[in-house]
């Protein structure tokens, strides 16, 4: 009898254990698909762009560094100071537009096992492989001051991106953590042509030369060594 | 592989294939006001007065599009070039980027007309 009850309890617990332990794809569907596009395509119209709640994930396996994803899901923090589409999160202030902090949603926090399972599932989502050349990024170095000069004065990217907490533009994602977050070959591809990944995104194609693309990633890597959080 | 997972993967593959064929520059022209809201607000602001959320740490203040005097000093062709090729193309700031990667010529022309509405002005007038 006791043995039978034990078996029943074990069977009842099984789905929960299995879900928490490894079915990342199911977790993605159940917990992530409400805010993230898991299947594509990217927004084709401005209305679709404005409606996007979280980053598209149908190419997560080509974009993110898995170790960062797993860690971030357990302790999420905002990457885009003004949200996915900044226009939904700003309001007029006395001296110009300000971010409406109360309109910005918090990302759910996952437990360690779920984070690992979801990360594994995300890494299988690989649309866009045709846009990436494996090994396109050739590791190298650039000084922080030279990198900043290029990023700000020569190319004007500081207009939309923060290069340290609280310094820079706020409509785009912060870049001081980007080398920890994203794969270097993806960065090269995305900066070369953002619209190839996201046709209506409000990041301009700056027509960067190959050597500048490389230097930008050198700079992002140097920034990431500064350990800004 | 469970049937459920197999179905999910097949669906994801099909959708990824659809995404692969559908991605790329959009060809449908959008309304100028919506384009302005998407691409210009970030620096030029919700009121078009050059006070967007990105201005805080900029070394050059974005153009106030409601300033009739400054805006009437520019021809429509110069405005078109500045939007399409960036500020440097008309000897202005690098902070104004080229938008030719995302906007069609038709959309840029409509934005120029929209700027004329914002400033209530025309070149030389």
Q: From N to C, what is the helix and strand string of chain B? A: HHHHH
Could you name the ranges of chain B where pLDDT drops below 50 across 5 or more consecutive residues? 1-25
- Structural class, from secondary structure content of chain B? mainly alpha
Kindly estimate the percentage of residues of chain B that lie in beta strands according to DSSP: under 5%
How much helix is in the residues of chain B?
40-55%
Structurally, how many domains make up the residues of chain B?
Answer: 1
Q: Can you give the helix content of chain A as a percent range? A: 40-55%
Give the largest interface pair and sizes. A-B, 56 and 48 residues
Specify the structural class of chain A: mainly alpha
The largest sheet of chain A has its strands arranged as: 1-2
Return the domain count of chain A: 2
Basic shape of chain B: globular
- The fold-level CATH name of chain B is Cytochrome Bc1 Complex, Chain D, domain 2
Name of the CATH first level of the largest domain in chain A: Mainly Alpha
Oligomeric status: heterodimer
CATH topology of the largest domain in chain A: Cytochrome Bc1 Complex, Chain D, domain 2
Put simply, the count of helices of chain A is 11
> Total number of helical segments of chain B?
5
Radius of gyration of chain A: 20 Å
Shape of chain A: globular
Structure overview:
The complex is a heterodimer of chains A (229) and B (125). In chain A, the strands form two sheets. Chain A has a two-stranded antiparallel sheet with strand order 1-2. A two-stranded antiparallel ribbon of chain A has the order 3-4. The termini of chain A are far apart. Chain A is built from eleven helices and four strands. Chain A is globular and about 45 Å long. Chain A folds into two domains: 1-127, Orthogonal Bundle (Cytochrome Bc1 Complex, Chain D, domain 2), CATH 1.10.760; 131-229, Cytochrome Bc1 Complex, Chain D, domain 2 (Orthogonal Bundle), CATH 1.10.760.10. Chain A has helices spanning 2-21, 24-32, 46-51, 60-63, 66-74, 112-122, 144-154, 178-181, 184-192, 194-197, 210-224, and strands at 90-93, 96-99, 162-164, 167-168. In chain A, 45% of the residues lie in helices and 6% in strands. With 229 residues, chain A is mostly helical. Chain B is mainly alpha-helical and 125 residues long. Chain B has a single domain (30-119), classed as Cytochrome Bc1 Complex, Chain D, domain 2 (Orthogonal Bundle), CATH 1.10.760. Chain B has five helices and no strands. Chain B has helices at residues 3-22, 32-44, 68-71, 76-85, 105-119. The longest helix of chain B is centred in the first third of the chain and has 20 residues, at 3-22. The termini of chain B are far apart. Mean pLDDT of chain B is 85; it is low at 1-25. Classes of the chains: A mainly alpha (229), B mainly alpha (125). Chains A and B meet through helix 3, strand 1, strand 2, helix 7 and strand 4 of A and helix 1 and helix 2 of B.
């Amino acid at each position: 009898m006791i043995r039978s009850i034990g078996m029943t309890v074990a069977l009842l617990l099984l789905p929960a254990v299995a879900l928490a332990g490894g079915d990342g794809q199911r977790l993605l569907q159940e917990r992530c698909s409400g805010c993230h596009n898991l299947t594509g395509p990217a927004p084709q119209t401005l209305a679709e762009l404005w409606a996007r709640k979280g980053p598209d994930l149908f190419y997560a396996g080509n974009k993110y560094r898995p170790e960062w994803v797993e860690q971030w899901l357990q302790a999420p923090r905002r990457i885009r100071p003004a949200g996915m589409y900044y226009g939904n999160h700003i309001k007029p202030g006395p001296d110009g537009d300000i971010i409406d902090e109360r309109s910005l949603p918090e990302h759910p926090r996952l437990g360690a096992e779920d984070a690992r399972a979801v990360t594994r599932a995300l890494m299988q989502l690989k649309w866009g492989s045709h846009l990436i050349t494996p090994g396109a990024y050739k590791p190298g170095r650039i000084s922080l001051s030279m990198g900043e000069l290029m990023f700000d004065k020569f190319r004007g990217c500081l207009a939309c991106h923060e290069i340290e907490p609280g310094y820079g533009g706020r409509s785009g994602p912060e870049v001081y953590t980007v080398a920890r977050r994203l794969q270097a070959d993806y960065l090269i591809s995305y900066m070369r042509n953002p619209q190839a990944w996201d046709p209506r995104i409000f990041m301009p194609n700056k027509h960067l030369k190959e050597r500048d693309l490389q230097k930008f990633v050198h700079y992002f890597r140097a920034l990431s060594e500064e350990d800004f959080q | 592989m469970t049937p459920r997972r197999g179905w999910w993967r097949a669906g994801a593959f099909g959708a990824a294939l659809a995404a692969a064929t559908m991605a790329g520059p959009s060809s449908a022209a959008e309304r100028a006001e919506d384009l302005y809201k998407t691409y210009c607000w970030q620096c030029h602001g919700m009121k078009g007065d050059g006070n967007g959320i990105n201005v805080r740490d900029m070394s050059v203040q974005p153009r106030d599009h409601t300033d009739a005097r400054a805006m009437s000093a520019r021809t429509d062709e110069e405005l078109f070039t500045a939007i399409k090729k960036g500020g440097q193309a008309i000897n202005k700031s690098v902070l104004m980027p080229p938008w030719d990667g995302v906007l069609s010529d038709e959309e840029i022309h409509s934005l120029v007309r929209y700027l004329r509405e914002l400033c209530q002005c025309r070149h030389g007038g």
